[in-house]
Amino acid sequence: MAYARILKSDDDLEPVVIGRVIVSEALRGEKVGQQLMSKTLETCTHHWPDKPVYLGAQAHLQNFYQSFGFIPVTEVYEEDGIPHIGMAREVIQA
Fold it and tell me: Could you tell me which residue ranges the N-acetyltransferase domain spans (predicted)?
């Protein structure tokens, strides 16, 4: 099982936010996370083509999210006792 949440603010100046990206332990290493992120970003681009996307990633997954065009935009911070980093993906023009 895998899950990602997409949040769109009513404020047009705010980015779309991806949160709670989860892949069950049994499916890790099976490329399910890559499929999930590809579909999630495809959905964001379809519905909000002119909006950047933001997520708070667990710091050890920074390279994974960078492979989708995200760049770090914060220092590492703790959330629920786990190091995280804020990352953003700018609008990609077709």
Answer: 1-92
Q: pTM of the entire structure?
A: 0.89
Q: Which of 25, 19, 31, 18 is nearest to 1 (CA)?
A: 25
Q: Give SS3 for 36.
A: helix
Which residue, 42, 60, 59, 52, is CA-closest to 4? Answer: 42
pLDDT in tens, 34-55: 999 999 999 999 999 999 999 9
The CATH fold of domain 2-89: Aminopeptidase (3.40.630)
Host H or E run for residue 40 = helix 32-47
Tokens of 43: 């959905």
